[in-house]
Amino acid sequence: MKSFRGWFRNLALARKLILINVVFIVLPLGLMGYFAFARFTETTERKVGDYQLQTLKQLTLNIDTYMNELNRLTVMPYQYPKVTDYLATRRTSGEPLTLDEISGLNSFVTQVFLNGRVDILGVSLYGTGGASYVVMPESQYVTTYKLDENVSWLNKFKGHYGQPVYVATHDLSSSGGNVYQAFSIVRELRSFDDGVTLGYIVIDVDPKFISEILSKVKLDAKELLYITDDSGKLVIGKDHGLPQAAPSLSPDNASEGVSHVKSEGEGLLMAHITSEVTGWTTVGIVPVSSLMKDTEVLRTYIILIGIICVGLALLLYVFIAYRITQPLRKLSRLMRSVERGDLSRAFPVSGTDEVGMLGHSFNGMLAKLSELAYLLYETEIREKDAQIAALQSKINPHFLYNTLGSISMYAELEGSPEIITMSNNLSKLLRYSLSGRKEHVTLQDELDHVSGYMTIQQMRYEERIRFTMTIEPSLLGSEVIPLMIQPLVENAINHALDKGVGRGRISLTADSSSQVLRITIEDDGIGMNAEALEALRLHLRNTKELGGRSGNGLLNVHRRIVLHYGDEYGLSLESMPYQGFKAVLKLPVITHQGRAREDDGVA
Amino acid sequence: MRDTGCYSGHKRNILITLSILLLAMLLVLVMGGCGTDGAEESPQAAAEPVTLEYWTPFSGGDNIFMTELVQQFNREHGDIRIDQINSRLDDYYSRLRTAILSGNAPDLAIIHATNLPQFVQNGYIEPLDGLAADTGLDWGQFNAKIAESTVYGGAHYAVPLDTHTLVLYYNKKYLKEAGLLDAGDKPLIGKGEQGFTEFLQQLKAELPPGVAPLALPSTRIDSVWLWWSLYNQMQGGGVFYNPDGTQAVFNNKGSLQALEFVNSLYQQELIPPDINDAFKLFYDGEAAMLITGVWGTGAFEQDENLELGVVPVPVIYDHPAVWGDSHTLAIPAKSEMSAEKRNAAMVFARWAVEHGVMWAEAGHVPSSREVVESGAYAALKFRSDYANTANSVAYWPRNVKQWTINEEIIRQFEKMIYKEQSPEQALQNAVDSINLQLKK
């Protein structure tokens, strides 16, 4: 169970969906089909059984009606006193009849024949006193017949007062040679006055009519339909054939019913009904398999349709499952390629469903990611650039230091303090610039560097430069980017002095407001006209790559700040022609804490 | 897996439509499949043969031959099925009349030539000339006397199957023992009433006790047949009605003579009294001679213990004459009878006539001259001995009430045989009663 759960959990989403579908569609559908079919089969069988029984009932009713009609003929002797008188006489076999008796008996028999149907074959009258008058087919009456004491129907009258006895089909041979099939109705005739038995009347009837009734019933092609009497003797079968496989009946149990029997491995549905009139049992037997022929066709259809429908549904479902999970799989593939570093492929979004939203988010994420990657990349480039630049100037710094040291020594020997100051400052500048790269330094460090630089420049330009520095002391510990202010000061000297004539004033101020550190470098030089300024600003805002003729110093400073702190910080410029130039650095106020002042020991 | 994003919404719609179409087709298929099941039970109907109900009144030994004839016909004709229903002659016509009047008539019925008038009247049976022409039945093939007996108003109303007459059967064993057979095994009967009576008396003297010299039933029509035969043998005899048919006139001298002769045979017990089944008596060897119809021949010759001989009824008076009748096939008129059934009935009639030899095996003289002259008929024993009687047949006169009139004669003769009245009284009572009927 646990392993199954684990297996299921790890199954691909599409397969999971299909599996669930199979379980929740095929299983109920199959079960439903099975139960429906089973129920249907059962109902059909019962219905057929009932139908069969009804048919037999109808059939038996028809036969009973006919039998009652025949039965009426057997009471006819009571309306013919000559007949009852004749039967009551005591006579020896073959004793001749009087003319009166002949005409009386003959007219009686003629009436029986005429009142009956065409199918009456013979009429026999037996008196208990030995009188007999027997008319068989194709012959004259016979008076020599004696009642056989052993005849099977004779003892059936006991307890059946006034009821006729129906005798199953037997052979009736005529003197002409023809053999007829006949069943018989026998009635005991009694005298009204003294109640004694006068004799019997036997009417032999061609079973053709019953046979016709039977042949009109069509239960099934393989049916067996027959009638037996109470001792199981065949009265008549539908096709005149005794059913070979006629299973032993159990008609004693009930006068009617439907039962299942097995014969020669075949299931048979047997309905039987016993007539109250004749006591005969009508039996109809139909093989279950032939009844169920239609059902089997139905079953085949159900299975076929079931398979096709389920197959179709599965196919559709497989398609839908793959269709639904396909964007997910694509997304996962894309993610893997992103993992490998390929950020160039976007997810094709089609629609605003969950998957679409996911794709959209993925695309956004991808864009962000590639932007960040670029930023990182640029930062690194800038660092590299700065380093390379430093490296270039680092060419043998010890040599420079040593040289500057020598110059300073010589100047001391010569007694030239200016040279000493300059060389010392220069040495410091170099040391600051070329020392190991530090990401952040304090504002104090940066200002020291600027001061050194300005000392040299002031010695160069003597009284022409007036440099003022106004710094909020609290900001001295703030973290800044190294070599950030010096290029601006250098720029200011160029603008303020080199292009103009006379004195120049450069002021450096650092203040802070709402956590923003503002470092302003201002000169009173020739400034810039509006277009040039605007071009320069655009250059700062949009250009990311270095290159070009000018403005690289400013751009470098600006980009480094932006890269370090974000877009809202950086360098802004203001200028008016002939009114000076103002560069403002905006930085967040971050107190440089704990970091020990890195020594300048590079060598 | 595959290239992505290629299934547009449009394509998906097509797929769904396709699936629905497929399902619909399936459904139609299933419905169609169920539908075809219903029409399975038709091929048998085409092979259903035309079934004809065929009524016959045979109660001698001849029914078994008719049954064989019918079976043979059914075997040879897959498209026609004849369903024979035989009943006692005693109630046959009563039954047939009722059936015709109640519209339940059979498709085909045997009618005795004597009885034709009562069925021709009111169109109870159909004239057959048209049908005969359709099926190729040639009226010319019949014995002229027989053919004539079926013509009424110029139209043929029935197809005659045979002529049957009275003949004299004799048991050669008894006659030989009595020395009454000639070299050709024919009985040596003397001339006239006296010759016949003496013959029987000699025979009676030689016979073991209990064996009848001559068997004739005490009741029923047999004695009437014999009287009619003898009456017709007389010069100027055989007159039944006055010329315009309004009165019976057979209470004359000749008639009385014939009847007195018949009565004398009974009274002298040359014909023993109280014989019911003379046929059976002769069959069982309890009678030396029997006068009955030719229909017994077939049955008697099958009895191995019976040394059978047959001759025509002896000529007692002036010239040969013998009662005879014909079995004819007629089609009772029914409104709903189909042309197929009529044709089939005619096909059977023609076939039965052409296969007259089969019917002749019962003992009857075939109606077709061709059959009578055929080798097959000649090969039959006994039949040629009496085939000529067909030419001296004395039919009953044509009268629509002849059958009931005969029954009246039977009643009077029975009383005579049972010694309740004299032959004179019998004739007079019969004539009186018949005249009463004729007046109705």
UniProtKB/TrEMBL annotation, chain B:
Gene3D superfamilies: Periplasmic binding protein-like II (3.40.190.10). Coiled coil: none annotated. SUPFAM superfamilies: Periplasmic binding protein-like II. It holds the Pfam family SBP_bac_1. InterPro entries: Bact_solute-bd_prot1, SBP. PANTHER family: ARABINOSE-BINDING PROTEIN-RELATED, DIACETYLCHITOBIOSE BINDING PROTEIN DASA. This is Extracellular solute-binding protein. It comes from Paenibacillus phytohabitans.
